[in-house]
Design brief:
alpha/beta, two-stranded parallel sheet
Amino acid sequence: MTEENLGGHDEVVVKKKKKKSRGDDSEVVLNINSIMDIMTILLVFLMVSITSDPLSIQQNEKLKLAKSTADYPPENSIPITVSAAQILVDRKPVLKVECTTQTGQQCQDQDYGEKTNSYRIDKFHKKDQDDNQFLIQTLFKKLEEVVKMKKEEDEAMQQEFKGIATVVVHSEIPFRILQEIVYTAGMAELSSLRFAVLKTSAR
């Protein structure tokens, strides 16, 4: 066999080894892809937690915060928004708040903002459809879903579930509805409640 043929033979051997090497690399790439998928899922959980800022509030006639000099830093929590028209959990509408004017008519857009309006939760949304019940069944079911998701996120992030909710409430909402919200949230394992207020300077 000539030296030229030997060189050609060597070249073939080298090419085969390179092909085998590429095959090995592809297996490593598959493993890396699997790890990247896991990291992406964890990143999504983290982004969901960060972007769930309950204090990103746009005030209007249906949602005006009470004023206070309290100064407590916000925490990562489940936001419950109670406007003059509806209740939302994590910015998603859950049920309607019944609003009536002083004359007993259902509130129209131009009526919101009047201090003489009355607000209530329809008994259809309450336990046993009883007006006297404090448990808002429709809200309770939604909070159960959100709490379950939050627990799964915290577990994936190796964090302890704290059961914190931030209530963003319209300043004209009556105390009775607040009692119902607090009771319902507590039944859904949200034992620590914070109320969002508009900070003013201390006197």
